[in-house]
Structure formats: structure tokens, C-alpha cells
Design goal:
single chain, 443 residues, alpha/beta, Aspartate Aminotransferase, domain 1, 8-stranded mixed sheet, 3-stranded antiparallel sheet, flat
């Protein structure tokens, strides 16, 4: 009876705290009017309401500081969104890529496992952490060019990159625009290659009616504040098979052989009934390590935010597409000077940003235009690292290049993007267009 009374009091206090948290949101995060040239228009940012805040506090009251009930809920729901059977949360999208590439070297894959020196096809123009895991796993990145407009690789470039040492394709869907998955999967099938889709910028994008991230052997997602849903920090690896899930989970969880969820023991019913490696019979399975792994889990407090965000994903994607279309219609008149973003055939992008490439020979300099836009407090970004091989960190890495990377170099000098994220209003989008109009009037 005393315990029941204590639980009732605890539940009542928790609800009171959550009610107050929702009220706190209304006071602490009021909507502010937009003032053109004064208010900042960032390229990306978090969009949230009281539900994220109350979930975060609710999780904190459990004081379960590692992955728990919210993480489990998120993984189940996110797997459905991505069209796969398994989703494994981790601490960042970069870690998700590291886990996915590292999984391809697992002994559990038998003769299909990649070995040092194997080649992996990827794009030269992209984000560092798509490529870094290839280098970190002592594999050889094979860089190919992309086409302007879609900013994704062509089938011809991918086919030209194949060699007897090619074992995998690892590429990102650039700024939410799916790459040619028909071509990628056909080339992979013909050459017995693994495919990893870096979907960090493309959650919710569709190709031929299916979610991106559901085609390859593995895919990744990021929940950094800039992305489609956020946990502050966080990432996820998606897999279609239970065998790949077990490899990724092991790598994420110190490399241990045990598959018990955090906080659980003896799921297999044989915790002290194993003999692996050179260990004695009966060594605790929770402390048997069959892979060289890491601890890349995330906290349940992060996952709690993600659970609330995931419910908003459809409206977030719709807002991104609306903002993209508004920018496209407003800037279409400048096609003589800019290459506007082009949707990949058979796809429905989940846009991360609006890319503009100054056409070579146009009487416009990217630098001058970006300075003008930024002076009006509108955020801009380049297409991540541009041609990675121009970056200091990649000057001396083992690699191979196929083609001349002409478009990647043009991207490095002539391309930038502006935001389409759901926090932008029609008024802000119109101000972005008028700011570019102001600059172009002087051309």
C-alpha cells in the first residue's frame, strides 16, 4: 500500500513537472517577428516545440543515462520510415558512416569481407565523413566526378571506376537529391559490390516510390541540428538483414559478442556457457569481444527528442519542398547566369538546401554574390568540402581518381547553397529572392 502511494505521488509530480515544462517553452521560446536585414536567416536549424522539451525532461527524470526506452521506440519507428528492418542508433552521422564501412571488413562476412587495399567508389565533391571511414579502414577511395545540377554521380563515371579491386560503392545523396539508384544497384549486382547510402542529408527522400536508404546493404542518417530531424547530436545505421544488424551493433557496443540490450543480461540463456577465441569455457559472454569496436551509443535523452521530432517529419519534408519550390520559381529568371538544382529522374528529393552554381563565363563571381547575401544576414554554405582532394587533409592519402574531376573543381569555385529548412517563412524566402534580385540588378 505504501509503495502504491509512493508511485502515485511520483507519477503526479512527474506530470506536474512536464506540465510546467510545456508552459516554460511558451515563455522561453516566443516567436519573434522577421525584420529583413536585421533578423538572421540561417541555412539550417532546429525546429521544435514543447513536445521535444517535455520528452527531454521526461527522459531525464528516469535518470537512465544511456540508451533506453526512447531509443528503442525511435529505432522501431525510424526503421519503418526508412523502409528497412533494422535501425541502430549511434552518437552521430559521422559515426554511422564509420560503423557502416567498418562492418564491411567484419570477419563475420566470410569471403565477402573487405580487406586492406580494397577499392571503394565515392564522389570527390562531398562531405569529409562520407570518405573518412574508407581511409580509416585502410581501404582505397576511388574518386569520381559528378554532374552539375543534380550534383550526383553518373552511371558512366561509376562504370569507368570499376577495377578488379573494387569492392563497394559509398556515396551520399547530395543535399537530399537521390543519386541514380537504378544504375548504382545494377552496377553493384553485376560486380558483386556492397552499397552504402549516406542518407544523412536525405531522410524522407524517395526514389522510384521507395525511401532512399532502403536500397543499399547499409545506409546512414544524421540527427545534427541542421538535419531533417534532430537530437542535437546523433546518428543511425540502417540495415536490411539481421546479420548486418548484429555486426553493426557489435561494432557500436565495444565490439562485444553479446547482443543483450543495455541493462539486460542473459538474453541468450547461455551467458556463462560459451568458449570463444582463447578464453576459458564459461567466460562471461557480456565481456567477450569478437570485433575491434567502439562505444558509439547515444543517450536516451537524445533519443527522447528524436521521438518527438520524428512525428513532425512529414510536415518538415513538405516545408522543405515548399521552400525549395518557392526559391526555384523566384530564381528561375537567372538561369542564364546560374545552374539551378535539378531533380534526379524517378526521385522525390527531401531537400537539405538550394544549390546555385555560377555558370563558367558568367559576369558574376560567387565570392561577390555570397558577400552580398551574407551582408543581408542570410546564411550561405559551399557544397561542403568541394573537391576533397583540394583540401589539406587529403593531400597525401592513398587514392585513385577516375576522370578529370572538372565538375568537382567548378563546384569548389562556383557553387554555394542557401537554406530551405522548415523554420523559414514565406517572408524570409521572399527576402532571400529579393536580396539576389538586388545583386543581379547590377550585373
Amino acid at each position: 500500500m505504501a509503495e502504491d502511494k509512493s508511485n502515485l505521488e511520483k507519477d503526479a509530480l512527474r506530470q506536474q513537472i512536464l506540465d510546467l515544462t510545456a508552459r516554460y517553452y511558451d515563455v522561453a521560446f516566443p516567436k519573434k517577428p522577421f525584420l529583413g536585414g536585421i533578423s538572421q536567416i540561417p541555412v539550417s536549424g532546429k525546429v521544435f516545440d514543447e513536445s521535444e522539451l517535455t520528452n527531454l525532461v521526461d527522459s531525464s527524470l528516469d535518470f537512465w543515462l544511456t540508451s533506453g526506452r526512447f531509443a528503442h521506440e525511435f529505432e522501431e519507428e525510424f526503421a519503418k520510415v526508412m523502409g528497412v528492418k533494422h535501425a541502430m542508433l549511434c552518437n552521430s552521422g559521422s559515426s554511422a558512416n564509420l560503423l557502416a564501412v567498418s562492418a564491411l571488413k567484419s570477419d563475420r562476412l566470410g569471403k565477402r569481407a573487405l580487406v586492406d587495399g580494397d577499392e571503394v567508389i565515392t564522389m570527390a565533391a562531398g562531405f569529409p565523413t562520407t570518405v573518412n571511414p574508407i581511409v580509416q579502414n585502410r581501404l582505397i577511395p576511388v574518386f569520381i566526378d559528378c554532374e552539375l545540377g543534380t550534383y550526383d554521380a553518373t552511371a558512366e563515371n561509376m562504370q569507368a571506376a570499376i577495377s578488379p579491386k573494387t569492392r563497394a560503392i559509398v556515396m551520399a545523396h547530395t543535399l537530399g537529391n537521390p543519386f541514380n539508384l537504378d544504375a548504382v544497384m545494377q552496377i553493384a549486382k553485376e560486380n558483386n559490390l556492397f552499397v552504402i547510402e549516406d542518407s544523412c542529408d536525405a531522410v524522407g527522400a524517395m526514389y522510384d516510390g521507395k525511401p532512399v536508404g532502403s536500397f543499399g546493404d547499409l545506409s546512414s542518417a544524421s540527427f545534427y541540428p541542421a538535419h531533417h530531424v534532430t537530437m542535437g547530436e546523433g546518428g543511425c545505421v540502417q540495415a536490411k538483414t539481421a546479420s548486418m544488424r548484429k555486426i553493426v551493433e557489435s561494432l557500436r557496443d565495444w565490439g562485444r559478442d553479446c547482443w543483450c540490450p543495455t541493462g539486460h543480461d542473459d538474453t541468450c540463456g547461455r551467458r556463462f556457457d560459451w568458449q570463444l577465441g582463447g578464453l576459458p569455457y564459461g567466460y562471461d559472454h557480456k565481456h567477450i569481444y569478437s570485433q575491434i569496436g567502439y562505444n558509439l551509443k547515444l543517450t536516451d535523452m537524445q533519443a527522447a527528442i528524436g521521438v518527438a521530432q520524428l512525428k513532425k517529419l512529414p510536415e518538415f519534408i513538405a516545408a522543405r519542398r515548399k521552400n525549395f519550390n518557392r526559391l526555384y520559381q523566384g530564381l528561375k529568371k537567372y538561369e542564364e547566369f546560374f545552374i539551378l538544382p535539378q531533380t534526379t529522374p524517378k526521385s522525390e528529393p527531401s531537400w537539405f538546401g538550394f544549390l546555385l552554381t555560377v555558370r563558367p563565363g558568367a559576369p558574376v563571381k560567387r565570392y561577390d554574390l555570397v558577400q552580398h547575401i551574407e551582408s543581408r544576414r542570410i546564411g550561405t554554405r559551399q557544397l561542403f568540402a568541394g573537391n576533397l582532394l583540394k583540401q589539406p587533409a587529403y593531400q597525401n592519402i592513398p587514392h585513385r581518381v577516375v576522370g578529370d574531376l572538372t565538375n568537382s573543381d567548378i563546384i569548389t569555385t562556383n557553387t554555394f547553397w542557401i537554406g530551405v529548412y522548415p523554420g523559414l517563412t514565406d517572408e524570409m524566402i521572399d527576402y532571400m529572392i529579393s536580396t539576389i534580385d538586388e545583386f543581379m540588378a547590377g550585373v
